[in-house]
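Hi R.,

As promised, here are both runs. First protein below:
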Amino acid sequence: MRRRGPGPVAIGAGRGAAYDPLVVERSRHVDFEACFNFRDLGGYETLDGRHVRWHALYRSDTLHRLTPADAEEFDALGLRTVIDLRSHTELDDFGRLAVAGAHEWHHVPMLDDVKLALRGDAAAPEREAPPEELAPGEGYVRIVQQFGDALARVLDVLSRDDALPAVFHCTSGKDRTGIVAAVVLELLGVPDEVIAADYVLTTRARERSSAWIEANEPDFAAFLATIPPERRVVSEETILGFLAGVRAEHGGIRELVDSIGVTDAQVAALRERLLDA
């Protein structure tokens, strides 16, 4: 197994605390041959000094590419739940996780008209207006407003008694996965700057992922080449803008999830199961 360290990373507590994302990067990525952005959300310190449990919740890029060696690595994680955030068209184009196991697979589409092959009217997230017309993170706010039912279902699944360990993923592990990670971490009390640092760890995956896609999925590589580079940037400003936008429009993440039907009991269950004592 190529696993991370067993204990919390010393990242400091509270907004403005010193934070070294490189330490986190080395400790939390799970290395696969054909999955490049799979990482543990454990170890992050909350504003009240608790820590997110290791080996309980993971975020990832697409899992349909796993090799036989990857399947063994994946199985060793002991996952009980896999949440696939990709659209129906993405699922049709590329298929789902093919690893057999005891986990339950949940398809919870977010941005359900996304196409990732060069067929017809392919569109990228934040497509409602040109990027220059949207403040950083505004597209993510629109996504949670339009697909609130999907976000509520994800939180419902993760709050269930037997859900953990779990992983949620989209295609690159950046946008839809980044939104869910930010919502969950904020509900757990993780500071904004730590949420942002976790978000930008996606950049670690880019070089290996791009090389693999060029060699193995040329149609998808051609699609990615049509997306303006600025639309693929992974910046702290995006996720910080998302959090700020939710607070401006809804009062906060807690108020947002309340508005889409997530209960106090579900939030309490998430906190109980994902935070140390």
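And here is the second one, sequence first, then its structure tokens:
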Amino acid sequence: MTYTNKFVEKLAELDQSGEPFVAVTMIDAVGSTPQDAGSKMLVHGNGLAFGTVGGGRVEKKSIDLALQLLSKRGPSTKFVEWNLQTDVGMTCGGVVRLYFETFNLHQWHVVIFGAGHVAQALVRGLLQLDCRVTCIDGRQEWLDRLPISNQLTTCFAKDPTTCVGNLADSDFILCMTMGHVTDRPILEQIFRDECHFPYVGVIGSRAKRKVLIRELTAAGISTDRAEQFECPIGLAVGNNQPNEIAISIMAQLLQRRDQLAQVRHP
């Protein structure tokens, strides 16, 4: 797709890439200013991607603020009013008003180990929400069945435990591999790495939970630590069809997400 407006074209390109970025618009300019109202620029993780809102100190201050917004890893907008002399350190006596809007920043990240039937349904449901999803599996053919989305990252890994070290503290973790034999090493790696995620869940029954705890403690994980995961996962609704299991898991994830949000912002 092409656009006559190069700014719109670049914005669409960045949006389609899934890369987090900030659009900065000068919504007003009063007095002597280096750019007129309506000037725009795009900033990604490496700095300026397109356009300008004034060059020099105005642009640098704007880029610095945009990078701060990106570092928060959450949807955000911000309006600022800067006096070019007192706030920016320029000799100009003008005033600029700028609007910052972030794109492709999803605060909620769900990591799913396994791309089987329930995971396929769960991924499709989560992609309807404001979250990012990463799905990890050693079976490329199952990863290939997942939908294409800017919100979804697929990762082929024969040994999924190698991916644990790349996870962020705020990630929600689901182990949904082919069985407890392949789920347990992931849990063990999480506990050995002293990871403390807001949610760690393993698909399965209460009997599976008991086996996992027994095997984890036998491997040297303390009993208290070995019990820090959900299994079974999902709310007690629906039947055993993959789509209904996925809905029950989504409901529990949303419940946990909102509970944590209330603790942070009572």
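A quick note on the second one: The first strand starts at residue 21 and ends at 30. Let me know what you think.

Best,
J.
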